[in-house]
Amino acid sequence: LFIGILVAFTPLLGKWLANVLQGKRSWLSPVLGPVERCTYRVAGVDPSREMDWKKYLTAVLLFNAAGFLILFLSLLCQKWLPLNPAGTENMRWDIALNTAISFVTNTNWQSYGGETTLSTLSQMTGLTVQNFLSAATGAAIAAALARAFVANRGEGVGNFWADMTRTTLYLLLPA
Questions:
Q1: I need a surface site. Which of 1, 15, 28, 30 has the fewest CB within 10 A?
Q2: How confident is the model over 85-138, as pLDDT tens digits?
Q3: CB 67 within 8 A of CB 105
Q4: How far apart are CA 11 and CA 157, in angstroms?
Q5: What's the whole-model pTM score?
Q6: Where are the alpha helices (DSSP H) in 25-128?
Q7: How far is CA 11 from the centre of its chain?
Q8: Are 112 and 99 in contact (CB under 8 A)?
Q9: HSE-up of 142 (CA within 13 Å, CB side)?
């Protein structure tokens, strides 16, 4: 039954997501369109500006490197950061490294007890944010790959920042 429902909705969801990633209007546009435009304005992003595959890859790698570094440092320093009511100690560097890598790559492998090892801040702004952003990164890369196949040369694969924003706003947050 589950697989049948999934197969039945795949063409509808696929077409809707393709339209969203192309910047076309959807039923969520009246609510999320202003948020999307504000995000671009604050970030200084022109969503209509195409990237070639090298610029797209560079944006993906820089974005994920920044996410990794922020998460890694927050895990190493959680003892001194706010929202630590249980007085959780800093995570060992090797566990913090493994955790940061696994959440940035969306594998979410954990070798610790989350409730006893992580502060509230680390869970909220570290792991939860990476759960969203790593999934959005994967969807953005899939969209760029599809565009590259259509273009047949890897030129004009879209805009990473627009893909991330649209995937997060229109797909992940409502889900």
A1: 1
A2: 999 999 999 999 999 999 999 998 888 877 788 999 999 999 999 999 999 999
A3: no
A4: 22
A5: 0.87
A6: 29-43, 53-76, 93-104, 114-117, 120-121
A7: 23
A8: yes
A9: 11
